Hints:
Blueprint: H1 3-13, E1 18-20, H2 46-55, E2 60-64, E3 71-76, H3 82-87, E4 96-98, E5 103-108, E6 136-139, E7 144-146, E8 154-155, H4 185-194, H5 198-208, H6 218-230, H7 238-250
Helix pairs in contact: 1-2, 6-7
Amino acid sequence: xxxxxxxxxxxxxxxxxxxxxxxxxxxxxxxxxxxxxxxxxxxxxxxxxxxxxxxxxxxxxxxxxxxxxxxxxxxxxxxxxxxxxxxxxxxxxxxxxxxxxxxxxxxxxxxxxxxxxxxxxxxxxxxxxxxxxxxxxxxxxxxxxxxxxxxxxxxxxxxxxxxxxxxxxxxxxxxxxxxxxxxxxxxxxxxxxxxxxxxxxxxxxxxxxxxxxxxxxxxxxxxxxxxxxxxxxxxxxxxxxxxxxxxxxxx
Length: 251
């Protein structure tokens, strides 16, 4: 079967295919073979697929993710993370691919605006839209994934993208920590990296209460905040800490 034959089968599944360098390429393995920005917002036609097959018949298969493709992908890059990812509700789609080291779960893009990619190891501490866990990534608008039958990859499903649920989103909560092995040093960092500073806690509480800290614990919350601002952990001078405290009090 030729490259474009398989590409057409992927299109029948609802997957937008573009060529990638083979997994064993010495310098560009798994990368898109041609400039692929255009294909973030367009689907290749039959003529384009045939042209790619002629130019680079040894290519493997990849796909842009996002609104135009119609799907986003939960990328679990480690077998050890699978149970935890399932407990977080990230693996509910029946459209699944086995990758070299883990799994890809496909969801239909909700289509209500662009969704950012997330690299688990680089998620900001205050960002609750994705868990800060190395090896747990999210491919959305502007993202890219390899697809079976590239290398040793294979589909673990008999359904197409029409059977995938719409991506429901994700929001981190401290209760999610129970799904990680506290004996694993790498996973212990999950709680630490998601823990908010007193300033972040104060602002988060204010946001949840409509912009103001209501009576009942207000003085205690503000005292804790001032103690943090004046400490070396905040990185502020005493003058800056006092100014920041006044700004927050005025609000």
